[in-house]
Design brief:
heterodimer, A: about 950 residues, alpha/beta, Alkaline Phosphatase, subunit A, 2 domains, B: about 240 residues, mainly alpha, signal (chain A), transmembrane helix (chain A), transmembrane (chain A), transferase (chain A), glycoprotein (chain A)
């Protein structure tokens, strides 16, 4: 187990790219710490008219910003088809952008934007707004909702009095729940729905353009993404979507242009049409291939200006055949987006941003500014450009200072920081840049009026800063997006070794058993062994494909049903226990239905809650199930008249069931409870139940430690102990998992009982005289499959949005990380790990070994530990395969979407189950 | 309904009789089974050809195939295949003296819906999609499956539980006819089981739809198992003279 822990730790270090989120925020006043010229003093020399405006880190160059995000916008949707070798049907559909970009020269441009993997919308939006590289797991305190707690663009906008309006994809609202002035979110989860989000956007977008009550408008269209997911890129719906967007964009631009005259609403508005990521021809995204990473940004300033860009700074990759159209396509890192927009709007850069203010985009935005300075000062283009350069270098200076600050703070505070050599190198580069800056600034101040000489040092300065920023970005990228293969290999190796050790352990256990008791060579046992190995291997191999991971619940229930059918066949063979077999099959049937329902939960619940009858049923059925459970427990203490302590524990559980029932009736609307009672009872009852559960566990543990029970009959004693343990856990698990809890508990009891009975059948049918030795691994396999099915049944799936955060807040309103995390863990793994593992002794205890009573005790315990080891082996095998698959597929498209969550869930599950197995064997065996 | 009752009654009688006869059967276990190798070959060929023919017929005359319109294809296939299977296997009915040819045909026909029910149940337990739009496909598929697995046994054994048990639970076929029933049935089921595996893959091919690849798997398994059963029968026939020596 320790080995497991180590292996997993190593592998995780290599595989999961973690980054600590810092709670720091940039504020306006921070700028005084930087060595750069503070904008107010600097710009006052240049331009008096803007002094009255709120000035922060940089001078705002645009007043209003319209961001239109087209999800999964491939680069070749926007770029003219001439850029590519052959023209595909989906190209040249957004002609309005191309036309503008080619005719209006510098005021509208198309950029190729390079995003960083993982190219999923959520991560991309995060990256766009924070200017960082979102990794798979951002270790931070964003527990409970994916909301961004890091410093980000939107936060800065709000802090600095900008009003932000959002429409479209509701992912934005998840990320920024409270930031928007107004928002029109539309659900994004239904991939089959091509039009709801888009139509909603269109409905709200055009009217909003006429209004004055916003500064930044974000519209997020999802149609292209959805069309890609369903139909692929090369399809009619996709082309229709693009054509529709073309029309929409035409309208938008028309409206904007109509109001862009002096004094108009959009006098100084900047329009950005951008994609958050690309997609492959099949419409997938998430990985790091060129198709997915390349998206585009169309930028347009509504003030047409004749000012040309400083061509020396262009990192453009104009192709020759494009020149005749007078359009170049430059590439931009999406990393740079946040900081560039911040610079344009004149707000502090997000604290965690490591981007560079992009020269072209910034120049495009500041085109308006240049124009003004021309009007005011009536200077020459040369001078004009120079002033722009001054500004830009200043912005870059601030930018570098901010990035440096972030790197320093980050490596100081995070556990897994950068290595010291990297830091040293970065610091060196920064120091150089800094030094030359102080020179430059001196020159600048001296030669303010003799401007001809300042061009060169400024350019050098820009280069220096760019160097610094580029090296930081490179470092960050290597740190946050590249796998550490060595670590992964070592982890994997250790994992395999543990597997072998476990296997050998089981072998040895078998042998020791074999010495004590003569073993009958039974063909069925070996068949069972082979079959269970077969099943486990199939399950493990199915993790190689993303589709099987997606459908893991179904695969598990498929295999479970297969074993069920085998058992059924067997029971026909033995002409016994037909009922159990049929019940088991029925149960599997129910499982798979609920798994399917769980997968489509949202659609399901919305469809049924409207029917009142269903409501009643939904209220009453859990209660009935609770009562049934209580009856079971009552029976179990009724017919075994023994140890008082355990009996007491079980009785208390019945009491807590009653409390649960009371709690639910109070929550439901069917019974009108007085408000007073509701207020106090709401938090109280769950807390009482948790307390009872903890108390029960304590009693059990203490009883185990001190009370040497007079082992009257070890088998019965064991069963009773198991029941007590289960009951102690069950109340907590049930209340945490909500109304489905008792139903699932009931189902798992029935399932467990069936497996047990069917297993008994094996043993009874065998010649009963010889003790059964080798625990057939088949029931244990079944048991673990059942556990997996239960996991999916309870509406979980291996994704972080599959966590039921609501469960963490049952009984508590406020948020305390550890407490809520424990509750969430109980909810997630309660039915799939806690109860099955603690219930595993049932399998052993209910077999009827006809050994002499003096031999019985060690026998049972040997069997028990064997069962636990097999269970552990099964879990470890699946996890190992998951790890292998993750390693193989680490450059797979869906690695961040599917494999990584699966990996995390499995690993957490393995560690937990190892832990619980140790606990349980200590409790039962030790 | 009445026919069913009578059938059941007679079959219970038949069981009683058979229990006696079984002993005799066991006694003369090595005696050549009522089905000769050539019969077995012939019937297998007919069944396989029937399957292929019905497939081809739907393809060419009704211009549907399994992928574009699984429901119709399956329907046509099982409609074509039913008379072939029922008629062929009814010839090998147990105790032909008490049970007329047409009664065997009758119970074979009766076996179709029963077997279909069992197949549906099994399929749904294993994860077949439930829903109105899949219902027809499921029904037709299960009818075909029933034809491949259940009906031959129904024709041959009637309601003799011991025989059923022997063939399907113990998997200990004795005699060519048992092989002929047991192996193809298991082949079809295992084929269907294997055929279900490509379904969740995200290749988005039309044949990944529910019943299509499962039907393919079932038919492939059936045909393979037929060959196997033929092989077994032939081996058996070859061995029998040796044993008798």
């Amino acid at each position: 187990m320790v080995l497991h822990g180590m292996a997993i730790f190593l592998f995780t270090r290599g595989f999961l790219l973690t980054r600590t989120e810092l709670p720091h925020f940039s504020t306006c006043s921070d700028i005084s710490d930087s060595p750069c010229i503070s904008p107010s003093s600097y710009s006052s020399n240049l331009n008096q008219t803007h002094l009255h405006q709120l000035q922060c880190w940089t001078r705002p160059v645009v007043d209003r910003l319209v961001i239109i995000v087209l999800d999964a916008l491939r680069f070749d949707f926007v770029a003219p088809s001439a850029c590519f070798e052959e023209k595909k049907p989906w190209m040249d559909k957004l002609q309005v952008l191309q036309k503008l970009a080619s005719t209006q020269g510098s005021s509208a441009r198309i950029f190729k934007a390079i995003s960083d993997p993982p190219t999923t919308s959520l991560q991309r939006l995060k990256g766009l707004t924070t200017g960082g590289l979102p990794t798979f797991i951002d270790v931070g305190n964003s527990f409970g909702a994916p909301a961004i707690v890091e410093d980000n663009l939107i936060y800065q906008l709000v802090q600095n009095g900008k009003r932000v309006v959002m429409m479209g994809d509701d992912t934005w609202l998840q990320l920024f729940p409270h930031h928007f002035e107004k928002s029109y979110p539309f659900p994004s989860f239904n991939v089959k729905d091509l039009h709801t989000v888009d139509n909603g956007c269109i409905d709200h977008l055009l009217p909003s353009l006429y209004q004055e009550d916003w500064d930044v408008l974000i519209a997020h269209f999802l149609g292209v993404d959805h069309a890609g997911h369903i139909f692929g890129v090369d399809s009619t719906p996709m082309i229709e979507k693009l054509e529709q967007y073309n029309g929409v964009l035409e309208n938008i631009i028309e409206v904007l242009e109509s109001q862009s005259g002096p004094g108009g609403l959009h006098e100084n508005t900047f329009l950005l049409v951008m994609g958050d990521h690309g997609q492959t021809i099949n419409g997938d995204h998430g990985g790091g291939t060129a198709e997915e990473v390349e998206t585009s940004i169309f930028a347009m300033s509504l003030k047409t200006t004749p000012s040309s860009l400083p061509l020396e700074l262009n990192t453009s990759c104009c192709e020759l055949h494009l020149d005749k159209e007078n359009m170049c396509i430059n590439s931009i890192q999406q990393l740079d987006f946040a900081v560039t927009v911040s610079a344009m709007l004149g707000i502090p850069f997000p604290f965690g941003s490591i981007g560079r203010v992009n020269s072209e985009l910034y120049a495009l935005g500041s085109g308006t500014w240049n124009l003004e300075s021309i009007n005011v000062g009536n200077r020459q283009t040369q001078l004009n450009m120079q002033s722009w350069m001054h500004d830009y270098v200043n912005v870059l200076c601030i930018n570098s200072w901010q990035v440096k600050r972030y790197i320093d703070v980050y490596s100081a505070s995070s556990i897994i920081g950068f290595s010291s050599e990297d830091i040293m190198r970065i610091t060196d580069i920064y120091a150089q840049a800094e030094e030359s800056w102080s020179h430059t600034i001196k020159n600048l101040l001296l030669d303010k009026n003799e401007s001809c000489n300042t061009m060169l040092p400024i350019k050098r300065q820009i280069d220096a800063y760019s160097d610094f920023l580029a090296s930081v970005a490179e470092l960050a990228r290597s740190k946050w997006t590249e796998f550490d293969l060595k670590m992964m290999g070592v982890g994997l190796g250790i994992m395999l070794i543990t597997l072998v050790i476990q296997f050998l352990g089981i072998k040895r256990m078998n042998k020791t058993c074999g010495v004590n008791f003569p073993s009958p060579g039974d063909s069925w046992t070996s068949f069972g062994l082979i079959f269970s190995i077969f099943i486990v291997m199939i399950r493990a191999c199915s993790f190689l494909s993303n589709s099987y991971i997606l459908e893991e619940g179904k695969v598990a229930s498929f295999l479970l049903a297969t074993t069920g059918i085998l058992k059924f066949r067997n029971s026909i063979l033995k002409k016994k226990m037909l009922l159990e077999a049929v019940v088991f099959l029925l149960l599997v049937f129910i499982f798979r239905l609920t798994i399917e329902l769980g997968l489509s939960k949202q659609a399901f619940s919305s469809g049924f809650t409207s029917i009142p009858l269903w409501m009643y049923i939904a209220e009453i059925v859990p209660m009935l199930a609770l009562v049934l459970l209580a009856c079971f427990l009552y029976k179990s203490i009724d017919d075994t008249a023994c140890v008082g302590l355990l009996k007491f524990v079980i009785a208390v559980t019945i009491l807590s069931y009653l409390l649960i029932a009371v709690h639910w009736t109070m929550e439901s609307n069917l019974v009108g409870t007085p408000l007073m009672l509701q207020g106090t009872g709401k938090g109280l009852i769950p807390r009482i139940i948790y307390a009872i559960g903890i108390g029960q566990l304590l009693i059990l543990a203490l009883g185990r430690l001190f009370g040497k029970e007079k082992a009257l009959d070890s088998k019965k004693g064991l069963i009773l102990k198991v029941v007590a343990m289960l009951s102690a856990w069950s109340s907590t698990v049930i209340i945490v998992s909500g109304k489905q809890g008792p139903l699932v508990a009931l189902a798992s009891i029935v399932g467990g009982w069936c497996i047990m009975r069917l297993e008994n059948l094996e043993h009874e049918s065998r010649d009963g005289s010889v003790g059964v030795l080798n625990l057939s691994p088949l029931p244990v396999t079944q048991w673990s499959l059942l556990a997996v099915s239960l996991f999916f049944c309870t509406g979980h799936w291996c994704a972080f949005d599959g966590l039921r955060y609501g469960a963490a807040f049952i009984g508590f309103d406020d948020f305390i990380l550890i407490r809520q995390a424990i509750l969430l863990t109980i909810d997630t793994f309660g039915f799939s790990l806690l109860l099955p593992i603690f219930g595993l002794p049932f399998l052993v205890a209910h077999q009827y070994p006809s050994v002499q009573s003096n031999q019985r005790k060690p026998f049972i315990f040997a069997r028990l530990s064997q069962a636990y080891m097999i269970y552990g082996l099964i879990t470890a095998t699946t996890v190992t395969f998951t790890i292998i698959c993750v390693t193989i597929q680490r450059r797979h498209l869906m690695v961040w979407g599917l494999f990584a969550p699966k990996f995390v869930f499995d690993v957490v599950g393995l560690i937990l189950s190892d832990f619980i197995i140790v606990l349980a064997s200590l409790y039962y065996v030790g | 309904m009445k026919a069913v009752e009578i059938d059941f009654k007679t079959s219970t009688q038949a069981i009683n009789l058979k229990k006696k006869k079984k002993h005799q059967n066991h006694v003369r276990n090595d005696a050549p089974s009522p089905v000769s190798a050539s019969h077995a070959i012939g019937s297998h060929l007919v069944c396989a050809l029937g399957l292929a023919l019905s497939f081809w017929a739907t393809h060419s005359f009704f211009s549907t195939n399994l992928i574009s319109d699984p429901v119709h294809t399956l329907l046509l296939t099982w409609v074509f295949e039913t008379p072939i299977v029922v008629l062929v296997y009814s010839r090998f009915r147990k105790n032909p003296k008490e049970c007329s040819y047409w009664r065997a045909v009758g119970r074979g026909l009766l076996g179709i819906p029963l077997g279909a029910l069992i197949n549906i149940f099994g399929a749904i337990a294993l994860g077949a999609p439930v829903g109105i739009q899949y219902l027809l496909g499921t029904i037709n598929w299960s009818l075909l499956m029933s034809l491949l697995t259940f009906v031959p046994a129904a024709c041959v054994f009637g309601s003799s539980w011991t025989d059923w048990q022997r063939v399907f639970a113990h998997t200990k076929p004795i005699g060519a006819i048992d092989y002929m029933i047991c192996l193809p049935a298991h082949g079809a089921i295992i084929g269907a089981w294997l055929g279900a595996w490509p379904m969740p893959l995200d290749w988005e091919r039309p044949w990944q739809e529910w019943p299509v690849c499962v039907s393919y798997g079932a038919m492939a398994g059936y045909l393979v198992a037929m060959v196997a059963s033929l092989g077994f029968t032939l081996v058996r026939v070859a061995r029998l003279p040796l044993k008798q020596d």
